[in-house]
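Session log. Operator J.P. requested a structure for one protein chain; no other inputs attached. Running the standard single-chain path with token output.
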Amino acid sequence: MNAQPSPRHLYAAGHFARTLAWSFVDLVLGYYLHARLGLSAAHTGQLLAISLAYSSLLDLLLAAVFTRLRNQQRLALRLQLIGGLGTAASACLLFSPGNATEPAFLPLLVASLLFRTCYAVYDVAQNALTSLLPRDEVEAMRYVSTRAVVVPISKLCIASALFVVVGTPASQGSGNALLICMVIGVLIAAAALPLACVATPPRPSATRPAAVALPLPALLPVLLAAAAETTLVGLAGRLFPFAEHGAALTFAMVAGMVVAPWLCLRLRTKLHSETGMLALMSVLAVGAVGVYLALPSTPIAIACAATHGTAVASVGLVLWRRTALIARRHAIHGGRDDDLSCFALLTGTMKLSIAASSLLLGEVLPGIQAGDLDTSVALVSLVAIGSLLSLAALAWPIPPARSEGLRP
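Structure written below.
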């Protein structure tokens, strides 16, 4: 008897492969350009900044384009296949030996922008499936929890794979990078092809069909929380790789993210409130950073990194869940699917926030490395402000779906 994999398992495989591609390029590209290809530090920073800004703006552009497209369930399944195969090919191009012979800025920039373009399509489509594939809101929460589990596991795999790229001889490290990209490409294809053939479940029909605007009133608190959480609270996690035991701290942080779905489910039950769970995670995020800076001990630092990872991932779980629920309710009450646009707005906001957080990182990193007390206090204050803003935004109730508004 041949058991067919469920759509949720195929969705999990797709998110696992997608995260492999993003995490590897995100963690290795800067090192590869500078240490392997000999690109100057200035040009490396410029290339990464341009490609990241382009990627975030592309997500916002896709959000506007997708508002004009219908039958988004089938469209998302096709786009994840097209974008996934393009992502696999362009990632291999980025780390191909041909680029290593002449580290010219423009060809590398073109290859990077090609990867960002393909990945943006792949990423938005995969994320939209979080609300397009489930049959109801209960199943949608299972999809969100599945995503929250496979993404950190995928990042742990990439963190382990970095040991065969970083610190190895130049020729061997370059070849290993390309080999890893090829393996990731095979995994992407293996996940995307069967997922493209999934039969989409029928969605409940709208109470009254109408052409409506995007559910921006409901999405705005989620986007504000995502911006605060990614820019300010996530800043602490970006400092861990630069610490004395950076690899161990980063691994501990990602490991803490793995337990977040399990922990969130139990905390919500015991606290009888999602807001209470978010408040607890906000306290843990701020406290972990404060203890990490105040008590310079390796075991304590590892515990703080894991705690911080759990807290950040728990809030992220709520962000993805809220977006999925808003998109589903909008489709039911408004009579049209805007899932692709909703998730494109979320990912675009997060990428812009990562760019802003990277600028803050450059300001606080020298002081943190020097052990400056004022910088440490400033970092804890930024994390606390981000946690409070995120908590306040997510504590705001989701407005009911509207079936009237401006035509796109």
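Operator note: Residues 63 and 344 are 5 Å apart (CA to CA).
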